[in-house]
Amino acid sequence: MIDLSKVFKVYSGKANACSCGCSGKYKVASSLKDFADKDRGYSHDESDIDDTQVRKIVGKILSSENPIDNGDHVYAVVGKRMYVAFKMV
């Protein structure tokens, strides 16, 4: 379902809330920063890069009861949090 080597960005935030970043945080995989920059339209700051957080969020999604794969991203709601992994397709 999720190939960690293709996950360029993750999101962790409040479930059932906006995911623009005001209710959570995005983190980018260092190895795919260039791809994430192109996807975003401009460069990410160094503070946005966090491989540990990317792995943790992918782990939370994979261990959840009902992850949903929408092709370019996989997400799961766990309690009051939503976790999303954006992947290269």
What would you note in describing this structure?
24% of the residues lie in helices and 31% in strands. The protein is of the alpha+beta class and 89 residues long. It has one domain. It has a five-stranded antiparallel beta sheet with strand order 2-1-5-4-3. The radius of gyration is 12 Å and the shape is globular. It starts with 6 loop residues before the first strand and ends with a strand. The model has no long low-confidence stretch (mean pLDDT 95).
- pLDDT averaged over residues: 95
Helix-strand sequence: EEHHEEE
Report the radius of gyration as a whole number of Å.
12 Å
Overall number of strands: 5
Percent range of helical residues: 10-25%
Instruction: Please describe the biggest sheet, giving its number of strands, its sense, and whether it closes into a barrel.
Output: 5 strands, antiparallel
Q: Count of helices?
A: 2
What does the overall shape look like? globular
- Ends apart, CA distance between termini: 12 Å
Structural class of the secondary elements?
alpha+beta
Which segments are poorly predicted (pLDDT under 50) over 5 or more consecutive residues? none
Biggest sheet: strand arrangement? 2-1-5-4-3
How many domains? The number is 1
Question: Strand content of the residues, in percent?
Answer: 25-35%
Descriptive keywords:
5-stranded antiparallel sheet; globular; 89 residues; alpha+beta
Topology record:
Blueprint: E1 7-14, E2 24-28, H1 33-40, H2 51-63, E3 68-69, E4 73-78, E5 81-87
